[in-house]
Amino acid sequence: MNTFKLALRGLSRNRRRSLVTLLAIAFGFAAISLFAGYTHNVYDGLARQSIHGELLGHLTISRRGMSTEGKLDPEHYLLSSADVARITQLLKDEPHIKLIAPRLGLSGLVSNGRASTIFIAEGISPQAMEKLQENVLTADEVRSGMYASVIKKLDPAASEKVLLSEGLAEMLHLKPGDTAPLLTNTIGGQANALDATVGGLFNTGNAGSNDKFAFMPLALAQSLYDVDSGADRLTVLLDDVARTESMRDDLLGKLKMAGFDVEIKTWQELSDFYNQVHDMFDMIFGFIFSIVLTVVVMSVANSMGMTVVERTREIGTLRAIGLKRGGVVRLFTAEALLLTLLGCAVGVAITFAVRYGINVAHISYTPPNSASAVPLLVDVDAGRTLFTAMMMLLVGSLAAYLPARRAARQPVIDALGHV
């Protein structure tokens, strides 16, 4: 306790230098915490967009080889209606599974009667689509009002209605209620066509797919593809994203024991965009963290170095009355520890104040390759914030060690005579 009291008095002797160093630590800590909160919001948003917005779910079950050879020989790799029923029966009692949804992907041409363009469609039941999108938006995103077109809804009472992406509908000058002829190949390679009704529009959030994507009821997709209640994969929705890996292993073992030669992919494996953005922001965070940490080290080291020079005679006096060299080191290390601790505390206050201002300001921006603006929001990343505080405390204390060690090694007579 005496060491910390002396350390606090030492910091108060030169208030200006201590304040400047404290503010350098505080603003550096706040910068890291705010960027960590922003990246956390981006990660969370991308994960929700992949799982719920793109309707990937947490796990995707398909026959082994479907992703590589299925386009060349779809009939061989499709799950039959009997397979879908058996797998659903096997997994329905799993406690952490909320939904098992058959899916069928197909592509073809869509027309407005005068011009045609390609489309890529997903067949899914309206009830499964609604279930998959339950957690796609947070409360802040709902309040922002920028995601009105994100929610996609098929009409369960109208199997002929399809949803078109906004870019695709704009290209063909189609609007809800218009008729859109669809032309596809069946599983046997024959041409098949029917008239669908535009039931609504949605935004994929990606400029690369917003002019060609569509959703349709699973029954309509099966009719176009000429399959009897089959599916190319099953989408599994869990109650917790943290269980994704463990459930993948459990379900894979259970299905193999039942004789199914399947593969199960997680949403991370299916979402290349999420992985690329995650890796990019991790690199940026590490770069910013190293720069701020260097600034903090230099600030604390400079402050402690100046303090040692100015208090050389005091150090000599303390040594003369019996303070050991280790005591001198502990004293200056305690000063650096207190200075860094106070800086982090002020940094936390700055972080919450700035975060509140950003979140209520309704700032928006359009990310690269995005089809719409998104709100700029900052979360609280407790894990990275605590890690930053611990690293700053450790590095700040180490930054004071060398000048303190140098001061403790001075001869007592020379220290007392220092001018």
UniProtKB/TrEMBL annotation:
<feature type="domain" description="ABC3 transporter permease C-terminal">
    <location>
        <begin position="287"/>
        <end position="411"/>
    </location>
</feature>
<dbReference type="InterPro" id="IPR025857">
    <property type="entry name" value="MacB_PCD"/>
</dbReference>
<protein>
    <submittedName>
        <fullName>ABC transporter permease YtrF</fullName>
    </submittedName>
</protein>
<feature type="domain" description="MacB-like periplasmic core">
    <location>
        <begin position="18"/>
        <end position="251"/>
    </location>
</feature>
<dbReference type="InterPro" id="IPR003838">
    <property type="entry name" value="ABC3_permease_C"/>
</dbReference>
<keyword id="KW-0812">Transmembrane</keyword>
<dbReference type="InterPro" id="IPR051447">
    <property type="entry name" value="Lipoprotein-release_system"/>
</dbReference>
<keyword id="KW-1133">Transmembrane helix</keyword>
<dbReference type="GO" id="GO:0044874">
    <property type="term" value="P:lipoprotein localization to outer membrane"/>
</dbReference>
<dbReference type="GO" id="GO:0098797">
    <property type="term" value="C:plasma membrane protein complex"/>
</dbReference>
<feature type="transmembrane region" description="Helical">
    <location>
        <begin position="283"/>
        <end position="309"/>
    </location>
</feature>
<dbReference type="Pfam" id="PF02687">
    <property type="entry name" value="FtsX"/>
</dbReference>
<feature type="transmembrane region" description="Helical">
    <location>
        <begin position="329"/>
        <end position="358"/>
    </location>
</feature>
<keyword id="KW-1003">Cell membrane</keyword>
<keyword id="KW-0472">Membrane</keyword>
<comment type="similarity">
    <text>Belongs to the ABC-4 integral membrane protein family. LolC/E subfamily.</text>
</comment>
<feature type="transmembrane region" description="Helical">
    <location>
        <begin position="385"/>
        <end position="404"/>
    </location>
</feature>
<dbReference type="Pfam" id="PF12704">
    <property type="entry name" value="MacB_PCD"/>
</dbReference>
